[in-house]
Every structure is written in C-alpha cells, then in structure tokens.
Amino acid sequence: GIFKQGSPAFTVPQETEAMASLKQCAAKMGPGFELSTVAPWSTFQRADHTPVRLGIRGEHQLQNASLAVQLFRVWNAHYGPATPGDEDLLNQGVLPELYARGLEKTVWPGRTQVVPDEPGLQFFLDGAHTQESMAACARWFSEASGELPDVGAGKVVAGGTSRRRTERVLLFNMMDKRDPGTLLGSLHRSFAAEGVHIDRAIFVPGRSHTAGMHKINGTQTVQWQEELREYWDNLQSKAPGKVNPQHKRKLCHVTERTNAHLTGGTLCAVTCKEQGEAGPRSSEVHTSLESVLQTLRHRAAARPDLQLQVLVTGSLYLVGDMLQELKYQV
Question: 140 with 58: CB under 8 angstroms?
Fold first, then answer.
C-alpha cells in the first residue's frame, strides 16, 4: 500500500526485516503518522461464542480477515457506525454480527475454492502463483480435501460399489521464462510437509494470456509444459521411497493419438510406471483443458470406487479458464 499523511496505516505481523522497512518508511512521513499492527484473529469471537467460518478458506486468510476488520472499523469511525455499539463490542474482543456475516459470505472465485463436478470428481482451485502462496495452497488443499466427504461415500453406486479410495491429481501451469523451482519446488516440498500424496500430475497450457482473458486462437505448443513435467518427475524421483531416476526413464512410455472429440486435437501423455513400494506414478501433458476435463470425467465414470480430487493451481489464467470450462457462476 501507499502511506498517506492524515490516514492511518495498518499491517499484519511481518518478518523482522520487513517490519523494520515499514517502520522506516513510516518515520519519513513525519510526526503524527500512525502505523499499527492489527490484532490477531484469535482475539475476536462472536457474542454467542460460535465460530466464524470465513467464506475464503485457508489459514493464511485469517490475517487478511483481521486486517479487513480493522479497516472496516476505521471506515465506520469516519462515516458513522453501521450499528450502534459496534465499537464497544470490538473493544471487548466481540465481533459484531454485521462483520461476521460479511466475512462468512465473502466469495473470491478461484481462491481456495471447491467446485464439485460429476459424481466422484471435485475440483480444488487456488490461483496461487508465488513461492509463499504455493505453500499456503498446499496447506489448504491438505485440510480441505481431507475434511470433505467422498462423493457417494457409504452409498451404493453403479455396479454395487461404494467410493472408498481417493486419488489426488495436480493440474498445473505457470508462466514460461520463470524458474520452475520457485513454484513447483515450493509446492512439492509443501506437499511432503503436509503428507499429501499426488497420484497424477497433469500439465496443460492455458487458453488465456496476459493481453487479456480471451481464448488463444490456433494450435499451442506444449514445450514449456513438457519442461514442467520433466522437472516434476525429477522431484518425484528424488522423494523418499522412490526408485532411481535412471531406472525411471527406462520404464516411461509416450503415447500420442488424435481424438476428433477433443478440442485441440492431439493428446500427448507421458506415463512413468515405477516399481517398488511407491507403486505406479504418472505425469501427463495435455494440449487443452477440454481434453483434461474429458479424461478426468471419463476416469470418474469408469471407476466408481474412486474419488478424484483435482487441485488446479500455479496460474490465475489457468484457474480462470477452468472456471469457465466448468461453467461456474457466482
């Protein structure tokens, strides 16, 4: 943000170096300028002590909620409180009901969002695209995918089989010319720290680009996605309990076919099956989101014993394109 004389400034807790920099900038504003650290979210509760379930999930959103409370508090003080007594409640650590309802109803499409699709298929979308947000994304996915009941769990579905096994899929893309280690490396380390096992990784180019959120015409190259896949496979091969990467290459096979039903035409899939305790593992490159969605829906329909949980992340463009593909509406 930009410091402005006559307007208070607020920040969430920062690392020592970052906080020192903020204080140095605040000191240059002269006497009377105020920089304050907002109260932690844990200091607030409803009057009836029931929890406030934020509309935007994720542990990292708690700090954003604290900042939102303080900003709205200052706005109310300037323009007049929306409800008499709000300030007294906040001074006691009680969150006014207007504040609580607003935070619970806040929606940000593509940020820590879960979109159910067909039976047995759920999409977890988060437009994380920095090293820090990748770690937060992994923590949220670990929590959200574990707390949601399996679609069809405990129920008899086609063929008399109940859904019991969860398969987690990573659908990823990032802007080219960036170091894959910044995002993929951070995400992989965070998955390991959270105990999240990814059964399949899919890399696909987005339909939109930086010039605007509209479709790219013509055939797209997947060279960058192939590089991302290679980087991911290398990370996987070095993970504990995995086979030697020299052996992995010998067990990989590449298939390429043309499917008239897939927009974008060619589907290139690289599947690496490995031996050992880790079992099979695969990574794929698709040329279009349409082919990805068709593949996932087909797998969910063909395997009623599976619950597919698909994390879509790495690029705001990819997440936006997927929301369009899923025909999501706010």
Answer: yes
Beta strands 200-203; 282-285: pairing state:
parallel
- Per cent of the chain over pLDDT 70 is 76
> What's the rounded Cα separation, in Å, for the pair 37 and 66?
10
Q: Is the pTM of this model over 0.90?
A: no
The length of the chain in residues reads 330
The pair of three-digit structure tokens given for residue 305, joined into one six-digit string: 């014993």
Reported for 109-113, long-range contacts at CB under 8 A and 24+ positions apart, including other chains, are 109/323, 109/328, 109/330, 110/316, 110/319, 110/320, 110/323, 111/56, 111/58, 112/56, 112/57, 112/58, 112/61, 112/137, 112/140, 112/144
282: domain CATH number? 3.90.190.20
Q: Do 89 and 223 have their domain in common?
A: no
What pLDDT score was predicted for residue 55? 86
Instruction: Report DSSP letters for 267-284, one per residue.
Output: EEEEEE---STT---EEE
Which structural domain, as residue segments, surrounds residue 297? 113-325
Give the whole-angstrom CA distance, residue 124 versus residue 171. 10
- Domain stop point among 53, 74, 105: 105
Query: What are the helix (H) ranges across 56-175?
Result: 61-79, 86-91, 97-105, 131-147
How far is it, in rounded angstroms, from Cα 212 to Cα 214? 6
Number of domains in the chain: 2
* CB within 8 Å of 313: residues ≥ 6 apart: 125, 126, 127, 128, 134, 137, 170, 171, 172, 187, 319
Q: Between 149 and 81, whose confidence is greater? A: 81
Whether 282 is covered by a domain: the verdict is yes
Confidence (pLDDT) at 140: 93
Partners of 266 in beta bridges: 258
Half-sphere exposure at residue 165, Cβ-oriented, CA atoms within 13 angstroms: 9
147 and 294 inside one domain? yes
